[in-house]
Amino acid sequence: MISARIPGCTSILLLATLLGACASGPAIRSHTDPGANLNAYQTFGFFDELTGQKPLYSSFVTQHVKDAIANEMQSRGYRREANPELMINFHLVSQNQVSVTQTAAPPMGYYGYRRGYYGWGVGTMYETNVDTYKEGTLNIDVVDVAAKKLLWEGIAVDRITDKALKNPKPVIEDAVKQMFEQFPGRR
Question: Cα dist. 124→18, 113, 116 in Å?
């Protein structure tokens, strides 16, 4: 099981990645155990709190993620308890990405207006654009404590933007909310 401990700088970067604040929002996907009945459970808690593997402190990003998850679970009728039926674990990661695109270049110069009409080698120019950026991923696991079995996993992936770095809380809340739209438990 992966711990929710994340160094402060990494957490902020991951948060920014996850929450990206792109116009399209994060890419969300989820997986559910086909035999899972998440409506049968009543209580939840977090991995680090249940296992005693709490870090010496929690980063702001970690606390924002926990609060957003707790709000989503409680809005569905689950109660947060010290001895829960469901254990929630999350993991944040960020990494550098490179995007390369190639498009036909616009005509240039006097002879450019006939580019491409004369066959091979004439007028076939392309423009290559390289974009480097940070991408963040948030994974949320919901586990049956007694069976030690993963019941649901939600994943959000997005670019980390300056806007998300400056004000991560609303970005995190929005990403977690979108992830839980695919949660099959009570609503």
Answer: 39, 12, 6
Q: Please tell us whether the domain made up of 8-100+131-180 is placed in CATH 2.60.40.10.
A: no
The two structure tokens encoding residue 21: 């604040």
Highest mean pLDDT: which range of 59-73, 84-98, 161-175: 59-73
Strand order across the 86-104 sheet? 27-32, 149-159, 126-144, 86-104, 43-46, 79-80
Q: Strand 27-32 to strand 149-159: parallel, antiparallel, or no bridges (unpaired)? A: antiparallel
Helix pair 8-19, 168-180: axis angle to 10 deg: 60
What is the chain's Cα-based Rg? Answer: 22
pLDDT band per the 50, 70, 90 thresholds, residue 183 = very high
Which contiguous run of DSSP H or E holds residue 50? helix 47-51
Residues 46/94, Cβ–Cβ less than 8 Å: no
